[in-house]
Specification:
The chain has helices at about 5-10, 45-55, 95-115, 175-185, 200-220, 220-230, 235-240, 250-260, 275-285, 300-320, 340-350, and strands spanning about 65-70, 75-80, 115-125, 140-145, 190-195, 230-235, 245-250, 290-300, 325-330, 355-365. By secondary structure, it is of the alpha+beta class. The strands form 3 sheets. The chain has a 4-stranded antiparallel β-sheet, with helices on one face. The chain has a 4-stranded antiparallel β-sheet with strand order 5-8-10-9. Strands 6-7 form a two-stranded parallel ribbon. The two termini are about 35 Å apart.
C-alpha cells in the first residue's frame, strides 16, 4: 500500500514554521525497532527461537504481526492468530490476515530446513475457521524433527533483505528470467500466477486504472483510512514502543503531531489537499509501474488462504533474489462494499470468475531504489507465556 505516503500529506502546509527545530532530524527508524532484521542471537539455546526469529520477518497486512506461538510442548510450535490485531474495516473476512499467517509459516519452514529439520505443518488441528470470522483455535501445529532428506532452500538467504517497496519503480521491464524464477518459486503451493508488462500495453493500462480507482476509494472512505490511522506510529518514541503498524518518522509529520495539528481521530475530506495530493502521488507511481504480478486460487477456504500466503512469501523472496521489488495492491481485493466494482473488475481482468476462483494477491513489480526494513516486535513479543 501507499498508506504511509498518505499520512505524510495529512495536515501538510498548515504550520510551515513548526518543523524548524526538527530540520536536522533523520527519517530513519530507531535501531531497536528494526533490530530483529539483524537475525537471531548466536547463542539461541532452543532451536525454535532461532527459527521463529526468521518467521517474524514475514510480510503482514498493515504490518500488524498477528502471530502468537505456544512452545510449551517440546519439539512443537502451536501458531495462533492474535485476535486483537485484525482489520475489520479493510479486511472484514480476515482473508488477508490468514494469508499473513501463511507468510509466517513459509518463513518458519525455510528456517527449519536451514537447520536440517522437517517441519510437519498441520493446519487448523482443532478445526478450520468459518468464512466470516476467526476464533481462538490454533491456525497450525508444527512438529519439528531431524531429517537427513531435508535440504536448505535457496530462498532462505533472502529473508533478511526482503522489503515491501512503495517507492516509484523504474519503467524498464523485468527480465524474462526473473519473471520465470518468481513463477517457479510458488510451485510447492496450489496457486496460478500471472504477469503483465509493456508487451501488453492495453492490459497494463487496465491494471493501472483498477489500482488507481481502488486506492481512491479507500482514501475517501473515512472508516478505512481511520483504520490505518489507528495503527500509525509517528516519531521515534511511538515507533520504538510499538514496533508494528505504519511508521512515519519525517520531520513535518512529527512537528504537526507535536503541536496537535495532526488529528489521527479524523479522516481528511475527499477534497482536502491531503487527499487530492495523495491521489496524484499514487497515480504517478502507478503510471510508471512496468509490470504487475498476481496469484489466483481455486476456492477460498481458510487453508487455501494460508497456502496462498505461503506462496506469496516465496514469490517475494524470489523477486528479492532477482533484484526486483514488489508492493501488494490490496485495495481492489478487499471485500468491503465500496470496493465491489474494482473487486469485480480485477477478477474479470484476470479471468478468475467467482465464486470458483479468488485473486489472493496482486502486486506492482519492478526495479526500485533500496528501502529500509519495517519495524518488528521481536520474537519474544509473540510467545504465549502462560
Amino acid at each position: 500500500m501507499n498508506r504511509r505516503s498518505f499520512v505524510r500529506l495529512a495536515g501538510g502546509g498548515m504550520v510551515l514554521g513548526a518543523t524548524a527545530g526538527l530540520a536536522g532530524c533523520s527519517s530513519s527508524l530507531p535501531p531497536e525497532a528494526v533490530q530483529a532484521w539483524n537475525g537471531p542471537a548466536a547463542d539461541s539455546v532452543d532451536v525454535r527461537h532461532w527459527i521463529l526469529s526468521y518467521a517474524i520477518l514475514a510480510p503482514h497486512s498493515h504490518n500488524l504481526q498477528s502471530w502468537l506461538v505456544d512452545l510449551r510442548q517440546p519439539g512443537e510450535i502451536m501458531l495462533y492468530c492474535d485476535l486483537t490485531r485484525l482489520l475489520p474495516e479493510t479486511d472484514p473476512l480476515s482473508r488477508q490476515i490468514m494469508m499473513s499467517q501463511g507468510t509466517f509459516l513459509e518463513l518458519l519452514d525455510l528456517a527449519a530446513r536451514q537447520k536440517g529439520l522437517r517441519a510437519d505443518i498441520a493446519l487448523f488441528p482443532q478445526g478450520e475457521f468459518g468464512p466470516a470470522a476467526l476464533d481462538k483455535r490454533p491456525v497450525a501445529r508444527i512438529r519439528l524433527s531431524p531429517d537427513a532428506a531435508v535440504k536448505p532452500d535457496p530462498l532462505f538467504a533472502h529473508i533478511l533483505t526482503r522489503r515491501t517497496n512503495r517507492e516509484a519503480y523504474e519503467l524498464r521491464e523485468p527480465a524474462p528470467a526473473a519473471v520465470q524464477a518468481i513463477a517457479a518459486s510458488v510451485a510447492p503451493h496450489p496457486v496460478r500466477t500471472g504477469f503483465v508488462g509493456p508487451a501488453q500495453p492495453d492490459a497494463l493500462q487496465k491494471h493501472r486504472a483498477i489500482a488507481s480507482e481502488a486506492w481512491r476509494i479507500e482514501l475517501v472512505t473515512p472508516r478505512t483510512i481511520l483504520e490505518s490511522f489507528k495503527v500509525l506510529r509517528v516519531g521515534p518514541r511511538e515507533i520504538a514502543e510499538h514496533r508494528d503498524g505504519l511508521s512515519i518518522n519525517t520531520p513535518m509529520v512529527r512537528a504537526l503531531t507535536a503541536v496537535g495539528l495532526f488529528d489521527r481521530s479524523k479522516a481528511p475530506g475527499p477534497d482536502d489537499t491531503a487527499t487530492t495530493g495523495q491521489i496524484k502521488d499514487f497515480n504517478a507511481k502507478i503510471a510508471t509501474t512496468p509490470a504487475f504480478f498476481w496469484m489466483v486460487t481455486e476456492g477460498n477456504d481458510r487453508k487455501t488462504q494460508v497456502n496462498a500466503g505461503r506462496a506469496y512469501a516465496r514469490a517475494q523472496l524470489a523477486a528479492t533474489a532477482q533484484g526486483l521489488s514488489m508492493q501488494p495492491l490490496s485495495q481492489a481485493l478487499q471485500e468491503y462494499p465500496e470496493q465491489a466494482r474494482p473487486y469485480a473488475d480485477i477478477h474479470a481482468l484476470l479471468e478468475a470468475p467467482q465464486p470458483r476462483y479468488t485473486v489472493q494477491m496482486w502486486t506492482r513489480l519492478g526495479y526500485a531504489p533500496a528501502v529500509g526494513p519495517a519495524p518488528r516486535r521481536g520474537m519474544e513479543a509473540h510467545l504465549i507465556k502462560a
